[in-house]
User: Fold this.
Amino acid sequence: MKKCGYVALVGRPNAGKSTLLNALLSAKVSVVSSKPQTTRNRILGVFTDEELESQLIFLDTPGMHKAEGLPRIHRAMNRTAWASLEDASIACYLVDVERGWTIDDTRYLKGVLERTKGKVVVLVTKVDSVKKDVVFASSSEIDNRVKEVVDAVPGAAEKIVQENVYMVSAKRPQEVKDLRIYLAHFMPEAEWLFEADDLTDRPQRFLCGEIIREQLFRQLGQELPYSCAVRVDSFESDTKIVRIAATIIVHRDTHKGIVIGKKGSRLREIGTEARLGLEKHLGGKVHLELFVKVQEGWLDDDRLLAEYAALESDG
Ligand SMILES: Nc1nc2c(ncn2[C@@H]2O[C@H](COP(=O)(O)OP(=O)(O)OP(=O)(O)O)[C@@H](O)[C@H]2O)c(=O)[nH]1
Ligand SMILES: [Mg+2]
Assistant:
């Protein structure tokens, strides 16, 4: 009998959700950077194991964060993250081993346990990044915090799948494979919702825009990437080359100059790196043309949030 279900990947920004998704799929469907709040949407990734007859539908999500006093885009991102729990057979709540547990994790894990109808597992991530004794100390501390949360939420004990947290590094293929097998146990018997060779539900165009946006996160300073979006204006491919034209949307006039840089140097550098990323992703030559446009207030405008960031408003 076939198995199929949704696995939500949630947690605070920078916990390692997108990196883990890509590792679980052995493919890049979600963008990654060292800055928090890189992911803006729900990114769906499918892993089908024909031998085990199981299909895992992963949902990578924006990091849960405080949105009070911030532009509307933050509320839309948070809503997207929480909405991923609706259909999840299991929710993975990710905590970065190095950062450890915070008061926000207490809040969010509580919320996850209250809202989800499925199971919940706490994953301690990036365990390759620190020494073993730090992994041990941090994970036992997280264990204790998780137990406190579980004790405080009625019905949580039936939802949490094991006493201890599950440790994983996205950089270690065997651990990722083991995690996939572990998660498959929680998938209900059901027909597959995707074809066996499907990887994501997002069109190629969207992924290309994300790969360009990833460069903004990697190459621009601390604040700027958050107020930028990338709109893919055209996407044409023939047998030899893919031609992509895209516009970087900024929300202030002064930002335009920063993105373009001295004599266009910054924009050229962004374009070069983005093209390399696109060529790797598409497996062929890419011609990329980038423009910059100022659109004041887009971070607070429901119509523009939908157009530039594929985010829905809360009405
Ligand atoms: N060493 C190591 N670094 C990791 C691992 N997983 C993620 N990272 C790094 O942690 C940073 C954040 O990773 P992301 O995958 O973008 O984190 P995220 O949870 O998706 O972040 P948001 O989308 O901002 O919510 C990046 O610099 C990654 O390279 C891991 O298993 N090991
Ligand atoms: Mg992410």
Q: What stands out?
A: Residues 13-19, 32-34, 36-39, 62-63, 125-126, 128-129, 169-171 surround guanosine-5'-triphosphate (ligand 1) (CB under 6 Å). The chain is about 40% helix and 20% strand.
